[in-house]
Each structure stands twice: as structure tokens, then as C-alpha cells.
Write a structure and sequence with these properties.
Blueprint lengths: L4 E8 L13 H4 L9 H10 L4 E7 L8 H7 L1
Parallel strand pairs: 1-2
Helix pairs in contact: 2-3
Length: about 80
């Protein structure tokens, strides 16, 4: 696959797991998901760069984002 930028994208901090190896603080993992841009905003932001991205979506638990599936589909 050809891409211009490879990036680790920490989509959210919150997580409903408490894995022993996690480096995020319990406070961060327990944070509420507030003020998250919707899928359209993220897609527009990445498209505006004019670059092809290879994204590693991480977190917390990225699937907690309310628009995680549509976001992945559109990206």
C-alpha cells in the first residue's frame, strides 16, 4: 500500500477495560467521551491534507467512540 503518512491515532482516552499492561492512568481510562468530532469532521480533516494516511487507530478503547464504525468505513 502506498501512503504519505503513517500515524498512531489515539481516538479516545476512555476505556471499559483495565488491562494490566495499559500505560494510561485510571483517571484517563475513566474519562467521559465529550466534545468528540463526528465522522464527517474527521474525514474532512484528513482529506484536507491532500495526503494518503495509514492510520493505526488506538486509545483507550477506540470502539467506544459513538461513530467508530461509520468513521472506519468512510476513512
Amino acid at each position: 500500500m502506498d501512503y504519505d503518512i503513517e500515524a498512531d491515532w489515539k481516538l479516545v482516552d476512555g476505556c471499559n477495560y483495565r488491562c494490566g499492561y495499559c500505560f494510561l492512568s485510571p483517571e484517563s481510562l475513566g474519562s467521559k467521551l465529550t466534545g468528540l468530532p463526528d465522522a464527517d469532521a474527521w474525514v474532512s480533516a484528513f482529506a484536507a491534507t491532500g495526503k494518503t494516511w495509514l492510520l493505526h487507530v488506538t486509545g483507550g478503547e477506540p470502539s467506544l467512540h459513538p461513530e467508530f464504525t461509520p468513521l472506519c468505513e468512510r476513512l
